[in-house]
Amino acid sequence: MTQKNSQPFSDPANTWNQRFATPGFLFGSEPNAWLREHAHIWATGERVLCVADGEGRNSVWLAEQGLAVEAFDIAETGVAKARELAAQRGVAVNCAVADCDAYAWPKATLDGVAAIFVQFADPDLRARLFANMVSALKPGGWLVLQGYTPRQLEHRTGGPPVASHLYTEAMLRKAFADLEIVSLREYEADLAEGSGHHGRSALIGMVARRR
Asked: Which tens digits make up the pLDDT trace of 8-18?
């Protein structure tokens, strides 16, 4: 499979607005399993940011756990659905429409960052995004991250069809060398997160803490 000339994210705002415009929730309305498994690291009232949170499944669930949640996404249609989902479930999420570079990143103030399948980012954007995520955490703050590994190109059950956008253990260790990596695991699992992530998947999950 050759992808050298493909540019699936050349117009990300329009791409995601169209994808989120369909009825229902592209990735479901329940939280990501890796995030659900590790969200206990945050205490009630702590401030957590959900990066590129789409239609709000993760931010709304974290708010239901008693956290003070902020979220952003590039797609207006996704953020509108996230706000509606929060209202339906009776929780508050501070949602913003912004891309990763334009977002008003806080500095050393967050108790947590959740980055779940933010794999639209090419290597240059990803480097800036990861740096902003780290700098936003206060000392002792936690990062929970999940993505696909290159083996996902064999499964084709979700994620970008571009190897450079996928995560490896070595890449994450290098990118987050300033954090204490508590858990970093490559594994396979059957996902059922809407139609967007459905079926056998090659995954990597990380939990890390700012020193």
From this structure: 567 888 988 89
Across the chain, mean pLDDT equals 93
Contact 168, 145 (CB under 8 A): no
Q: What are phi and psi of 22, to 5 degrees?
A: -70, 150
Structure tokens at 53: 């949170």
Whether 22 is covered by a domain: the verdict is no
Q: Has this prediction a pTM greater than 0.90?
A: yes
Task: Look up the domain containing 167 and give its range.
Answer: 12-17+28-210
pLDDT digits (tens, 9 = 90+) for 50-67: 999 999 999 999 999 999
**162: in domain:** yes
Instruction: Please check whether residue 153 lies inside any domain of the structure.
Output: yes
Q: How many domains does the chain have?
A: 1
Structure confidence at residue 19 (pLDDT): 86
Cβ atoms of residues 59 and 83 within 8 Å? no
Alpha helical stretches, state H, 107-166: 123-136, 152-155
* Within-domain flag for 5: no
Which residues, at least 6 apart from 175, have a Cβ–Cβ distance to it below 8 Å?
Answer: 126, 127, 130
The residues, any chain, with a CB within 8 Å of residue 140's CB and separated by 6 or more, are 111, 209, 210
